[in-house]
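Appendix C reproduces, verbatim, an entry submitted by the partner laboratory led by Prof. M.T., so that reviewers can inspect both the input and the predicted structure.
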Amino acid sequence: MARGPAYPFVDLEQAVEFAAKMYQYAKRSPVQANSVIENAWGYSSTSSGSKKTLAALKYFGLIEEMPGNEGRLIKLSDRAYRILVDSPDSPERRQALQESVLSPKAYLLCWNRWGAEMPPSMRSTLLFDEGFIESTVDGFIADYKKSIEFAALLQNESVAKEDLLPPRESPVAIRSHVDNPLPSPQNSTGGLSIESPNDEYRSDVFSLSEGTVALRWPKQISAESFQDLSDWLDLLKRKIERTVLQKPKELDPAN
């Protein structure tokens, strides 16, 4: 049955608890996913719950997949290790939690739109504008609220709701200028291609009457990374659209 946009199966606090069980079982060594599922979490490796829990930890950036020839290998991420072993009042641990809670695209969308407000219209907006469905939207909102409370986002008054992006997860850098640009011919889009022959990144600059916009991305990215980038750019377009100046309505001469 459809459940709308993808989001974690469990809230962040539960995900951290699953990560802790994985740490007790395998520490930071790569281990077969089915072994963690069955021996650390007590699930059947063929159950839907086990697959959804594993996916949730990936959504929050708590586990990484490792290359291996003997089944699916996973290990705890540096972020998860920080959360599990650092002091509870550590600023670095708090930052890791805040990066985790905004890693799922659906959570980031809600934080960028509402921040700590979470108005009553949140439910209807998710249903009408974001493709959520009635049978799952309430569960999503409950998990989202628990997660941002657990990550102490509501206590951090210095966090701007549209500016807190996980720095290690941000796929591209967008700036109003490019440092030391190399001159190159203007391309068909009206922008300037900024690229060094030995650079591992590609860059492009688009000129607007108000200024320039620059985009930089790795020369080679995976299909999964491209989809993440595409989703992020869609979100960025909506944020930029809010800054577009609207022309005043012309008065009807008949009136």
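Confidence is low (pLDDT under 50) at residues 157-198. Additional entries are available on request from the coordinating office.
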